[in-house]
Structures are given as C-alpha cells and as structure tokens.
Specification:
It is built from six helices and no strands. It is mainly alpha-helical and 143 residues long. It has one domain. Helix 2 packs across helix 3 and helix 5 packs across helix 6. This is Membrane protein.
Amino acid sequence: MSTGFTPLASLAGGMLIGLAAVLLMALHGRILGATGILAGLMRSDDARDRSLRAALLLGMVLAPGLVLLVTGDWPALEVPVPMTALIGGGLLVGIGAGFGGGCTSGHGVCGNARFSRRSITATLSFLIAAFATVHVTRHLIGG
C-alpha cells in the first residue's frame, strides 16, 4: 500500500495549524488542543468560553467548504481502511487523549513548542504507537 505524501500541501497545513495555535495563544491565552476544546465545550458554563470553543470547532468542520469556494474542488480524501477500522481508531484515539491528558494538537504542536516535558513524552508515545500500529497492520497482519 502506497501513501500519497504531498509536501507542499502538508507544509501549508502545518503552517496554518501553527498560525492558528499562535493566534489563539496571543489573542485568548489558550492552548489549541482540539480534544480539550471539544471537552470544554461540553462542560463549560461560561457563555464567552462556549462561544470561542464553538467557533473553533465550527471552523474545523467548515474548512473543507472554504477549500471548495477557493479552488472549486472538494479536498481530496482517501481513507484506505474500512469504516469500522476508522471508527475504532477514532474511539481509541479519543480514549488515549483522555488518558494522556491531551491530543496531538495540544501536546504535539503547542506543548512541544513550550518545551513541556510532559508534552514531549506524550508526543513520543503517540509516535511510537503510530509506528508500531503501521508495522503490525502492514507487515505482520497484512492490512
């Protein structure tokens, strides 16, 4: 199974995520962690906090529509696994983010930029688990 790595699109996406993280910290003093934003939306009583979290999540959901408006095409999305694997993987990532005290955006982007030892450890754990998963599914069980 080959992957379609797109260096320019990946670089642009990384730059936009970094810019979003910097702007959220500079303007609101908040860490851009998608899991924390979603969890906080569900439990916050503060109307301003809920509005900020809802706006961030809405932007994440509506971004493909912006790509359609700008380019005339929907973003290419290829998921080479069955829907059950996608749902199972999403649930496992959600559980792991809960146990790890954050997700890849919070730890990997924001925490590492602040040289947080906790985030560096979490990011290394994410990467090791990802490498092991790819190795097992592609080479040992032939997924």
